[in-house]
Amino acid sequence: MSIGGIDRVLFAPAGVSVADAILQVCRDLWPKCIFQDSDGAIGHEIDDPWVWMHGTASDEFFVFTDRTAYEMWNEFGASQENSNSMLHFIVRPHPGPPYGLFEVTVVVDQWDESMRALDDGLQNAFQAIYHVRSAA
């Protein structure tokens, strides 16, 4: 499942669950969002314990803003009506330098206020992780 669109690359510290931080930001923005692993066929409600026990180990996944968006994407694929209702996340080790980072690619349909809010939330979450690790 590919949405094309705009790729935004962020950097997160290695050694932590980057997917966990991403999903917490998504849950804050879209409390009814749906998680789907890129290799999976099932969308899980964000509050499903499976997401937090297994989904956070994924390095490539989709987040749909809600159940309706998930169903629309599965039935119709990309369309103008469901623009920015599904996000594609890819987490990979950054080849460096600098070393000790993950590259987080976020693919969105178009850059709008909701995607800016997501971007801000992710950057803040990754910075908070970095500061906690630095203080330890």
What's this entry about, in short?
The protein is α+β, with helices and mostly antiparallel strands.
Key descriptive features of the protein:
26% strand, alpha+beta, 136 residues, disordered C terminus
Would you write up a description of this structure?
The protein has four helices and six strands; from the N terminus they run E-H-E-E-H-E-H-E-E-H. The protein is an alpha+beta fold. The chain has one domain (6-135): TATA-Binding Protein (2-Layer Sandwich), CATH 3.30.310. Strand 2 (34-37) and strand 3 form a beta hairpin. It is globular and about 40 Å long. Mean pLDDT is 90; it is low at 132-136.
What secondary-structure arrangement, pairings included, does this model have?
Blueprint: E1 6-13, H1 18-29, E2 34-37, E3 44-45, H2 49-53, E4 60-64, H3 67-76, E5 86-93, E6 101-108, H4 113-135
Antiparallel strand pairs: 1-6, 2-3, 2-4, 4-5, 5-6
Helix pairs in contact: 1-4
* Strands ordered across the widest β-sheet: 1-6-5-4-2-3
Q: What is the overall pLDDT average?
A: 90
CATH topology: TATA-Binding Protein
Report the sheet-strand fraction. Answer: 25-35%
Structural class, please?
alpha+beta
- Could you give a short account of the major beta sheet? 6 strands, antiparallel
How many whole angstroms does the radius of gyration measure? 14 Å
Count of the separate structural domains: 1
Low-confidence stretches: 132-136
Quick one: how many beta strands? Answer: 6
The shape is globular
Using the 3D structure, state the CATH architecture. Answer: 2-Layer Sandwich
Instruction: Give the SSE order as H and E letters.
Output: EHEEHEHEEH
| Helical content (DSSP H or I, runs of 4+) | 25-40%
Number of discrete helical segments? 4
Span between N and C termini? Answer: 40 Å
